[in-house]
Amino acid sequence: MHLDLPMEELKHYRGKNPKPSDFDQYWSEALAELDALPLDYEVTEADFRVEGMTLYHLTFTGIGGVTVHAKWAKPHQPTGQAVVMFHGYGVDSGDWLDKVAYAKEGIHVFAMDCRGQGGLSEDTIVTIGPTVRGHIIRGLKDKDPKNLYYRAVFLDTAQLVKIIQTIEGIDPQRIGSYGQSQGGALALAVASLVPEIKKTYSVYPFLSDYKRAWEMDVTNSAYEELSFYFRNVDPLHQFEEETFLKLGYIDLHHLAPRIESDVIMVTGMRDNICPPSTQFAVFNHLTTKKTHRLYLEHGHEYIPHHADEAFQFFKKL
Predict the structure, then answer these.
(1) Beta bridge mates, 44
(2) Helix/strand/coil for 186
(3) What would the pLDDT profile of 216-227 be if each residue is shown by its tens digit?
(4) What is the per-residue pLDDT across 67-78, written as a single tens digit (0 to 9) for each?
(5) Number of C-beta neighbours around residue 243 at 10 A
(6) Computed from CA positions of residues 129, 133, 138, 140, in that sequence, does the dihedral angle turn out positive or negative?
(7) What is the C-alpha to C-alpha distance for residues 220 and 87, in angstroms, rounded to an integer?
(8) Does residue 110 contact residue 102 with C-beta atoms inside 8 Å?
(9) How far is CA 98 from the centre of its chain?
(10) Measured distance CA(17)–CA(157) in Å, rounded
């Protein structure tokens, strides 16, 4: 419990990372760019078979012309509901098994591979500056903040949901978002960009309050690439203020007030990978119906019972 700020401070903590003055314009222009893309997609049936559903690989063209891949579990007796799932840092959309449970209940499931990580999505981002040891720093040296890696990924999540909203048999007003760590961040990000998202379940979200994460034991956390960046690019911290201000464009605690969905967030209070204060910074900026599950003895690890709660949460979409 002494890993981070005292509980009473956490309950009121609202983050340290600065917010760019043109933050809202930045995301308005990003969404306008997204609206100009066609909502075309292709599907190929997977070689995995489960009774009562058909499993597909779905691909679409994202910002920059890349091919983005997602798994789709399509129930044969749909209820009109859908859940979009996002994976952790550097891996992929995972096995079919956790998607199958939802499809058995008539819920469509879509699980996206983040571009340039462990799955099948492409990555053709061209940007200036270092790319070693992480994606947060991709684009930081580029003069144009539109070339930040996570801008593209956030827009991929929104485009996938916009595609889902066009699919026959899915109610565009009955879609939820779900993920853990990076996936928990993307579940919140997509809810901030697509107001029709109705329910969001986010487990120890990443990508928030970068300055606070850097002030802590950053070399042993998911934010270690910030240390790498300063050590190799700006060792005297001459451009520290500029760096954190640019990171503010892709900071979840600045996007949080845009979210309209009901939110359940899960935080392990001994999490040294995504420190609790960085997560509270997001939660405390939410203005919608929200619940914070605090696991006092847990860190960035398996959290008991949360998957069952998420399943019940989304069944009520």
Answers:
(1) 57
(2) helix
(3) 988 889 999 999
(4) 999 999 999 999
(5) 22
(6) negative
(7) 21
(8) no
(9) 18
(10) 23
Q: Show Cβ contacts of residue 29 under 8 Å, excluding neighbours closer than 6 positions.
A: none
The three-state (H, E, C) secondary structure of 128-163, written as one string: CCCCCCCCCCCCCCCCCHHHCHHHHHHHHHHHHHHH
Is-above-0.90 flag for pTM? Answer: yes
Report the distance separating Cα 155 and Cα 184, nearest Å.
Answer: 15
168 contacts 160 by C-beta, under 8 angstroms:
no
* Distance of alpha carbon 144 from alpha carbon 142, whole angstroms: 5
Q: Residue 119: is it exposed, middle or buried by C-beta count within 10 angstroms (0-12/13-18/19+)?
A: buried
| Mean pLDDT (the chain, rounded) | 95
**How far apart are the C-alpha atoms of 91 and 87, rounded to whole Å?**
7
Q: Tokens standing for 201? A: 């379940």
| Cα 189 from Cα 285, distance rounded (Å) | 13
Beta bridge partners of 202: 179, 265
Residue with tokens 């040294």: 272
Write the CA distances from 100 to 2, 50, 71, integer angstroms: 39, 8, 11
The sign of the dihedral angle between the CA atoms of 67, 73, 79, 84 is: negative
Give pLDDT tens digits for 268-284: 999 999 999 999 999 99
Tokens of 143: 């003069």
